[in-house]
Amino acid sequence: MKIAILDTRKAYLPEISAYISYLEKNGITAVRIYKDILDNINKYDIIWKFTGVDFIGNNNGSVVHEYNSLTVGKLKWIKDTIKKQTNIKPEGRVFLNNEVKAAMNFKDNVPSIIRDMGIAKEFFVQNPNKEYDFVYIGAMEKSRQLDQILHSFKQKDIQKNILMIGRPNDELYAQFKDNKNIIFTGIVNYKEVPKLASKGIYGLNYVPDVYPFNKQTSTKLLEYCALGLNIVTTDYYWVRNFEEKENSSFYKITNKTHLDFESIDKFNYKTADVMKYEWNTVLNQSGLIEFINQIR
Predict the structure, then answer these.
(1) Which residues form the Glycosyl transferase family domain (predicted)?
(2) In this structure, which of 61, 142, 203, 209 has its CB flanked by the most CB atoms within 10 Å?
(3) Chain centroid to CA 157: how far?
């Protein structure tokens, strides 16, 4: 069996590499193909798509639509409704969690599974040699509102620094690039991320408490926990549920424009044990192989 997983290059998708590795171990050929350089997709048994709008099927096989997030920005409800009503009917669907599945609210009988985010094994390392006070991994688009929190590192006499791992939006970079306490790495090879992030003391999980961000799994928080970092986070629905479920203790940011560094240093942290979120375990529990066999 051959599976092609479509990468649009528009989002950071660590699950693609996890899928390919896991499927290969289970005797299934899986490859990443890019939307802008498509080869003959009809030669694959299954086409796997992280769903935007999709009008194109697979003449010789099956299509899977994966909903790993919900739409953000203006008119998000309308955009999700358009996706739901106009997309082709696939042979299978994958949802990030039950919140995403409920929001899409499909009424047909298409087989589906829940596949939450996992952690690459490379993140399960701990580094006693610290170079940074804070690290931040991941998305830095304007909707993340990171400019609010970064002002804390520009204040006079502040000695704390933060390593920002990933590509900042142009406005954010222009605003903070000259501050010695704020270090932007730019795009980093995924395999290098754990080495860099492990040099921090605190993992910053800065997620706006707005839909849909507050209902979605925070991959960066899982990765921080695997690295053994202390978690400093905004307070919202998903993070509260995770903290309680995993019997952990995270510092909650109360003022988004002013970090209380003294309180952060004094807080009694308890980092969650996240070994069960390693990708192989997550994919085993999702029933991925059974799902693939069912739709093919």
Answers:
(1) 125-272
(2) 203
(3) 34
CB of 250 within 8 A of CB of 231? Answer: yes
| Close Cβ partners of 33 (under 8 Å, ≥ 6 residues apart) | 4, 5, 6, 7, 39, 41
Tell me, what's the pLDDT at 75?
55
Residues 131 and 267 in one domain: yes
- Computed over every residue of the chain, the mean pLDDT equals 89
Angstrom distance (rounded) from CA 230 to CA 202: 5
Q: How many domains does the chain have?
A: 2
Same domain, 99 and 140: no
Quote the Cα angle for 169-35-171, to 5°. 5
**Could you give the CA distance from residue 150 to residue 134 in angstroms, rounded to a whole number?**
11
Of 102, 296, 130, the residue nearest 198 (C-alpha) = 130
What residue numbers bound the domain in which 144 lies? Answer: 121-275
Q: Model's pTM, two decimal places?
A: 0.87
Phi/psi of residue 295, nearest 5 degrees: -85, -15
Q: Report pLDDT for 191.
A: 86
- CATH number assigned to the domain comprising residue 158: 3.40.50.2000
Q: CA 283, CA 114: separation in Å to the nearest integer?
A: 10
The length of the chain in residues reads 296
pLDDT of residue 187: 86
Of 7-11, 162-166, 221-225, the range with the lowest mean pLDDT is: 7-11
Q: In the chain, where does DSSP find H-type helix?
A: 14-25, 76-86, 98-104, 146-150, 170-176, 193-197, 219-226, 237-245, 261-266, 279-286, 288-295
| CA 55 – CA 212 distance, rounded (Å) | 25
Per-residue pLDDT averaged across 58-76, rounded? 74
